[in-house]
Structure formats: structure tokens, C-alpha cells
Specification:
Elements (H helix, E strand, L loop, with lengths): L2 E7 L3 H7 L2 H5 L3 E6 L2 H13 L3 E3 L7 H15 L7 E5 L3 E2 L2 H14 L3 E7 L11 E2 L4 H10 L15 E3 L1 E2 L3 E5 H6 L12 H11 L4 E11 L11 H19 L4
Parallel strand pairs: 1-2, 1-4, 2-3, 6-11
Antiparallel strand pairs: 4-10, 5-11, 6-10, 7-9, 8-11
Protein name: Glycosyl transferase family 2
GO molecular function: transferase activity
Organism: Pantoea coffeiphila
């Protein structure tokens, strides 16, 4: 059983080098870095070669889901990834150790888990949680979040101490058995950005495969959220993705 890690750089070249997480992971796992901008490819090409990281320098300007699907297909057809292997989606602004990934995969095998999430923090002291695990949202939840900044879907991580099924986890870190990712057909590429992670988890739940959250597996997330003010490009992407998910959720009810 092998581990394949998908990282997409969309102008993150300097951050990736500064965090310096990937060279350590590449010593034990298959790390594939997909550049979404030509300047990333230029900045990271030599660095990747020095650190045994596979770099993909083509098909620029894709959305989050399509990029990770591209990497999955590359791992399957070029790197011989098998169904029993683990495919990990890893944000470029995230730091995790190889030991934590190895422990996660060991737990997944022991518990026969096909889809896993981990505990993300926003600071080195691990006192500020990243709200990366949540309940599936309703139209009311989205409305309250957009208008009032109130999100009742967030799960309080301070109350979870053992591996626990959750509705969905953020795409900043996902560990999925390759055969299950294949069964789901990966991310829905109709989502350019936002909600594709909710959609993937929801479709997994429809197949009776929940996301299992492992609170003792830690990583640090240096998240920087794009401008989502009304009428900004990111806000419009978010709005479109929200309605796409809600329509799908309404027409495909969980039993």
C-alpha cells in the first residue's frame, strides 16, 4: 500500500518553499505538485527536481476539483497507483509531518476507513482550531453565513476526542482510498471553486461511506481566505457553488 499526495499551486510557489513541508514528505511518499500557473512551474521546477517531487507543468487555469482529478489520473496512469493505495489532497498552505500521515493511514487501515479527515490548527501552539469539519449546510445556514457571518454548521473540535464520523471536511486535507475516490469519480468539476469538498463528502455519504475525523492527527493550516465581498469574483463563485450544492442535496436526499 502506497501513499500519493496531491498539491496544487496557484501562485503559492514561495509559500511552498517557505513552509518546506513537501521535501520531507517526498522522502517517504509520492508527492505530486500540479502547477496552475506558468510562473509556478518556472519557480518550482528546479526545487522539485532537487527534492524528489513530481511536478506537473501543463493544463493551467483549472479549478480546484479538476486540478486534483488531474493529479489522481496522473498517479493512476503514470505512477501506478492502485485501488488499495491512499490518495491525499493537501493544500499548499498546510504543514504536516510524515509521521502524522503514516499514523493516519495506519489508523485508516486498522479501522477500515476509506475517507478520513484530521485536526487542523491555525497556530503553532495548537490553541486555535481551524473549523475544517462541519455539518451539511441548509439554505438557511448559507444565508446566515453570508449575511450575518454566523455559521451553525461548525463542529466544536474541543468536544471530540476519538475517531468520529462527520458530515464533511474541508478540501485543505482529505485522505481517501484510491478505489473510493475512483468510485466517486473524484471531485465534481462543475464546481470551479468552493463547495466541491462538501459535494464530494455528500456523495460519499450517499454511498454509505462517511468521513471519519481523527482528532489526534494534527497539521498546521496557514489559511488566507480570498476576498469574498459582495460582487467580487470569489463571492460570485461561492454563490454559484452554494446553489449548485443545495440543488443536488435537495434532489439526492440522504436516507
Amino acid at each position: 500500500m502506497n501513499i500519493y499526495i496531491s498539491v496544487v499551486s496557484h501562485g503559492h510557489a514561495e509559500m511552498i518553499k517557505q513552509i518546506n513541508c513537501l521535501p520531507q514528505l517526498a522522502k517517504q511518499f509520492n508527492v505530486v505538485l500540479k502547477c496552475n500557473k506558468p510562473q509556478d512551474a518556472e519557480a518550482l521546477n528546479e526545487w522539485c527536481a532537487e527534492n524528489n517531487i513530481v511536478i506537473i507543468k501543463s493544463d493551467y487555469g483549472l479549478g480546484f476539483g479538476k486540478n486534483n482529478n488531474f493529479v489522481f489520473d496522473y498517479c493512476k496512469h503514470k505512477l501506478n497507483m492502485q485501488g488499495e493505495d491512499i490518495f491525499i489532497v493537501l493544500n499548499p498552505d498546510l504543514h504536516i509531518t510524515a509521521e502524522q500521515i503514516a499514523e493516519l493511514v495506519e489508523n485508516m487501515q486498522r479501522d477500515r476507513v476509506a475517507f478520513a479527515a484530521i485536526n487542523l490548527f491555525k497556530n503553532d501552539e495548537k490553541t486555535i482550531y481551524d473549523n475544517s469539519i462541519r455539518k451539511f449546510p441548509t439554505l438557511k445556514d448559507f444565508f446566515q453565513s453570508f449575511i450575518f457571518g454566523v455559521n451553525k454548521c461548525i463542529i466544536d473540535k474541543s468536544t471530540v476526542f476519538t475517531p468520529t464520523p462527520v458530515d464533511w471536511t474541508a478540501g485543505s486535507f482529505m485522505a481517501i482510498k484510491a478505489s473510493h475516490y475512483q468510485q466517486l469519480s473524484g471531485f465534481n468539476e462543475k464546481y470551479f471553486m468552493y463547495c466541491e469538498d462538501i459535494d464530494l463528502c455528500y456523495r460519499s455519504q450517499l454511498l454509505k461511506v462517511p468521513v471519519v475525523y481523527y482528532p489526534t492527527i494534527h497539521a498546521l493550516h496557514f489559511a488566507k481566505h480570498a476576498n469574498r465581498s459582495v460582487f467580487s469574483r470569489h463571492f460570485m463563485w461561492h454563490l454559484q457553488s452554494t446553489f449548485r450544492f443545495l440543488i443536488y442535496k435537495f434532489t439526492h436526499r440522504l436516507s
